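Entry for the shared binder. Reason: the reviewer on the internal report wants the predicted structure included alongside the sequence.
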Amino acid sequence: MALKKQLSITVVNQAGEGAKLCAMLMETGVNIEAISVCEFTEGGVVRLVVDDDRAAVKLLRERGYAVLVRVVISIVMENRPGALGEAMGALARRGHNVNYCYGSVSPGSSRAMIVFAVSDPMQADLLFR
């Protein structure tokens, strides 16, 4: 469990935009730990959790991207049926609204990582320590 900074970047909805973002971050040595892409008609929002948020924000803003920084929580949990529901239930019982979440697991892995955008990430973080 960890507090992380998520970067939300508005992009145009066209082929190659994601590759361009990834290449820019790679050139600066920034590693992407989690990603979510939500599209709408003419654009989209790319949400990133990276290993060096300051360097990423500086680079992206220098390149003309609008970047919103939000504190989120990242939970590494067991990869088993019910684990995600238990985490969401624990948040709900303490009154934390989950605005959205995203995550992944490698096939065969015993652990999964989920990123949660919640109403109060600082307090929610305490639940999982």
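Summary line for the report: Residues 77 and 83 are 7 Å apart (CA to CA).
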